[in-house]
């Protein structure tokens, strides 16, 4: 059995083990725990690497990964592949418990291409089909199946963030990777296929279209003003006040001036950084409290579990690091109880978003949510600023023993 250990910030340590089919699983813990569980499942053949095809109408890459058609779809709890292994269930995680784990996706859209990879050269309709080089990883936020990200303790969320920082740092060393994107899909309305609290980490061999658009805008803004676009955006939000949802010493959450969705929240560090790996430990320690509060407010608007996509946008690995800045975008298609905003003709066909709710109204609805008294997010004032910010306490999962 191959294993390795890595010491990270916030008292987090990582243990790497091999899965039955040769994939890597990474355990992130804060207690002095030995991870040595063996994956006893029969090895299965890994799917072939997917392919890239260029759409000459847009010059955008499409990934064709036909093997993903057969992936697991909304299994019952007792068959969840993201729960720990238990009698009667041999899951992706061989141990009987875990804090946070990250493992290579069983049905990846992107995979290691081997040596000598290069994106095909543009040649119009004659552009060659390429290999979908990159990485797809699953990050499980907790071993508890029936919970949500905002219901985790601040200590647990801090471990999740440390895992994301670690993966960004390590994946950035791969020559064939151009951009790293971490995201969480929550709710069947946005296409979730596994209900266990988890996210995904995609490492692309190209810049995704939205990232490329943001980079182009950031470069243009800097060329014309000599300033960083996101930094100036935050200054405007602080000045206007009306779209701020909450903030603490290191982070600010706001509804963007030109929001595209009924409920869209951006969360950014007040001292800007290029990517997750560049966050200071102080910034990372201050993230869990604002993350919990923002998502509590989102659920509290209608008193229901809101479907959302929460995505970390950051600078590409090798381009635009002087102008692009890290921030967390949370978007929900829920516009009212029982009503969704469908991305129809204008949005889906042409990419032109139309909002039925003013961003200022959305921000006010989020600020008006009364948080649970037991929460640490703090009472909201009229400006959207918290009167109290929670600190990071001791990690709560110490003493759990591993399964071997």
Overview of the molecule:
By secondary structure, this protein is an alpha+beta fold. The protein has 2 domains: 3-206, HIT family, subunit A, CATH 3.30.428; 210-368, HIT family, subunit A (2-Layer Sandwich), CATH 3.30.428. The chain contains 6 helices and 17 strands. The protein has helices at residues 154-171, 209-225, 229-240, 281-300, 345-350, 359-368, and strands at residues 3-7, 13-18, 24-29, 51-55, 60-64, 100-104, 130-131, 135-140, 179-186, 198-204, 244-247, 251-254, 263-269, 308-313, 327-332, 334-336, 339-340. A 12-stranded antiparallel beta sheet has the order 1-2-3-6-8-10-9-14-15-13-12-11, sandwiched between helices. The chain has a 3-stranded antiparallel beta sheet with strand order 5-4-7, with no helix packed on it. Strand 4 (51-55) and strand 5 (60-64) form a beta hairpin. The protein is globular, with a radius of gyration of 21 Å. Residues 375-404 have low confidence and may be disordered.
User: Which range does the strand content fall in?
Assistant: 15-25%
Task: Please provide the ordered H/E string of secondary-structure elements.
Answer: EEEEEEEEHEEHHEEEHEEEEHH
Strand order of the largest sheet: 1-2-3-6-8-10-9-14-15-13-12-11
Taken from the alpha-carbon principal axes, the silhouette is: globular
Mean of pLDDT: 90
Q: Uncertain spans, ≥5 residues at pLDDT below 50?
A: 375-404
CATH superfamily of the largest domain, by name, is HIT-like
Q: Please, how many domains?
A: 2
Give the class from helix and strand content and strand pairing. Answer: alpha+beta
Q: Termini distance?
A: 12 Å
């Amino acid at each position: 059995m191959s294993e390795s250990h890595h010491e990270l910030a916030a008292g987090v340590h990582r243990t790497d083990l091999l899965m039955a089919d040769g994939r890597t699983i990474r355990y992130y813990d804060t207690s002095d725990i030995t991870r040595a569980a063996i994956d006893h499942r029969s090895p299965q053949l890994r799917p072939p690497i997917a392919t890239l095809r260029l759409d000459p109408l847009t010059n955008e890459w499409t990934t064709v990964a036909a093997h993903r058609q057969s992936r697991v779809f909304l299994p019952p709890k007792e068959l969840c592949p993201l729960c720990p292994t238990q009698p009667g269930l041999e899951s992706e995680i061989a141990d009987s418990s875990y804090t946070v784990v990250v493992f290579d996706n069983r049905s990846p859209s992107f995979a290691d291409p081997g040596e000598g990879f290069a994106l095909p050269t543009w040649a119009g309709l004659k552009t060659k089909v390429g290999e979908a080089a990159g990485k797809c990883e699953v990050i499980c936020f907790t071993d508890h199946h029936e919970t949500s990200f905002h219901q985790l303790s601040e200590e647990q969320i801090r471990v999740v963030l440390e895992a994301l920082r670690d993966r960004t740092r390590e994946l950035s060393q791969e020559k064939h990777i151009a951009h790293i994107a971490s995201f969480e899909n929550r709710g069947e309305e946005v296409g979730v296929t596994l209900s266990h609290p988890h996210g995904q980490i995609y490492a692309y061999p190209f810049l995704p279209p939205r990232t490329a658009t943001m980079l182009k805008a950031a470069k243009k803004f800097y060329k014309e003003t000599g300033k960083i676009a996101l930094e100036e955006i935050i200054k405007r939000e602080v000045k206007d006040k009306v779209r701020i949802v909450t903030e603490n010493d290191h982070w600010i959450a706001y509804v963007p001036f030109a929001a595209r969705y009924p409920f869209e929240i951006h969360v950014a560090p007040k001292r800007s950084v290029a990517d997750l790996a560049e966050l200071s430990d102080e910034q990372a320690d201050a993230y869990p409290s604002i993350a919990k509060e923002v998502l509590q407010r989102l659920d509290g608007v209608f008193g229901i579990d809101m479907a959302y996509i929460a995505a970390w946008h950051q600078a590409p690995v090798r381009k635009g690091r002087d102008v692009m800045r890290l921030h967390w975008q949370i978007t929900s298609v829920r516009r009212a109880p029982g009503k969704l905003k469908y991305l129809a003709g204008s949005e889906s066909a042409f990419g032109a978003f139309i909002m039925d709710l003013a961003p200022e109204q959305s921000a006010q609805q989020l600020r008006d949510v009364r948080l649970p008294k037991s929460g640490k997010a703090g009472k909201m004032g009229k400006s959207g600023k918290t009167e109290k910010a929670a600190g990071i306490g001791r990690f709560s999962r110490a003493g759990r023993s591993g399964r071997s």
